[in-house]
């Protein structure tokens, strides 16, 4: 099997008109590599990866009421999600609270894990939409707050998701597989 010289990971992060965040990262894996992947497996691997890559500072806690990304062993949730909802070719976590979410906006936003068959392979994606970060402060954030969000939380989110997709690809294709990030435009908005 011949693998691409550099596997591409597509990425876009924008602030949309209502000042919510849209962020998507995806890669189209060869079908022979990604055939065993399902959205549920992708979610479970991501949760384990979050724990590992943060040296257990952030610990996903799963219960009947949903999933929380907690600090260490505390009950402090950075972000909380309702239980996973299965959709066609995706598992969706709907945001329901947490310290990183603007008060009054806790019932908005979702994190989607997709595994979709395409003619040229299997698209593996992570998509965050309608998320209202506390750092932005309001539906009309100041330039300073947008910059603060871009340099902190947005940068961390992008690094974590891109690295997750790169590691997943290398696990399936072999440790020598190379990846590169390419910018894409899926939605209009102000880049973050």
What is the fold named in CATH at topology level?
Answer: Alpha-D-Glucose-1,6-Bisphosphate, Chain A, domain 4
Q: Mean pLDDT, as a whole number?
A: 93
Low-confidence stretches: none
CATH class equals Alpha Beta
Give a short account of the largest sheet: 11 strands, mixed
State the total count of DSSP E strands: 11
Protein name: DUF1997 domain-containing protein
Organism: Oryzomonas japonica
Describe the structure.
With 192 residues, the protein is an alpha+beta fold. It has a single domain (7-191), classed as Alpha-D-Glucose-1,6-Bisphosphate, Chain A, domain 4 (2-Layer Sandwich). 26% of the residues lie in helices and 38% in strands. The protein is built from three helices and eleven strands, in the order E-E-H-H-E-E-E-E-E-E-E-H-E-E. The chain has helices at 31-34, 39-53, 143-173; strands spanning 7-15, 21-29, 58-63, 66-71, 77-81, 85-87, 90-97, 110-118, 121-131, 179-183, 190-191. Strands 1, 2, 3, 4, 5, 6, 7, 8, 9, 10 and 11 form an eleven-stranded mixed β-sheet that branches. Strand 3 (58-63) and strand 4 form a beta hairpin. The mean pLDDT is 93.
């Amino acid at each position: 099997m011949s693998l691409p010289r550099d596997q591409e990971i597509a990425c876009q992060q924008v602030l949309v008109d209502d000042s919510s965040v849209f962020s998507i990262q995806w890669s189209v894996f060869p079908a022979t590599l990604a055939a065993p992947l399902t959205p549920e497996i992708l979610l479970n691997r991501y949760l384990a990866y979050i724990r590992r890559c943060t040296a257990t500072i952030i610990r996903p806690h799963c219960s009947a009421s949903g999933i929380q990304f907690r600090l260490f062993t505390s009950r402090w949730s950075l972000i909380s999600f309702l239980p996973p909802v299965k959709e066609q070719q995706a598992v969706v976590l709907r945001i329901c609270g947490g310290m990183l979410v603007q008060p009054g906006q806790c019932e908005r936003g979702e994190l989607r894990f997709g595994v979709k068959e395409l003619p040229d392979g299997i698209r593996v994606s992570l998509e965050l939409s309608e998320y209202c970060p506390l750092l932005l402060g309001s539906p009309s954030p100041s330039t300073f707050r947008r910059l603060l969000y871009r340099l902190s939380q947005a940068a961390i989110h992008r690094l974590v998701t891109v690295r997750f997709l790169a590691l997943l690809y290398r696990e399936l294709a072999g440790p020598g597989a190379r990846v590169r990030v390419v910018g894409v435009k899926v939605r209009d908005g102000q880049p973050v």
